[in-house]
Amino acid sequence: MDDAEQRRLLESLPVHPGLCTTCEHLRLLASPRSVFVRCGLAESDPRFVRYPPLPVRVCPGYQKKDVRDLKDSKDEGRKL
How many CB atoms lie within 10 A of CB 23? Predict the structure, then answer.
């Protein structure tokens, strides 16, 4: 899922996801009628809820997504 698609899905949520919006561990799952915010840390650490209640205001696993990574992936897509 590219960055634009992720932004579109986040904007379609009825509740702002809070910290998850900019978290490295954010996983979005979309069906034709719904979008689910999933925590990637829940796969390996039982302290984290797979589908956290939104908005997430405090999270010990929060890691801000590196914006440079997003920019680099966009640039790579243009080279193809």
Answer: 21
Question: Considering only CA atoms, which of 63, 66, 26 is closest in space to residue 42?
Answer: 26
pLDDT tens, residue by residue, 2-48: 889 999 999 999 999 999 999 999 999 999 999 999 999 999 999 99
CB burial class (10 A; 0-12, 13-18, 19+) of residue 41?
buried
- Closest to 8 in 3D by CA, of 26, 28, 25: 28
List the chain domain ranges: 3-79
pTM: predicted TM-score of the whole model, two decimal places: 0.77
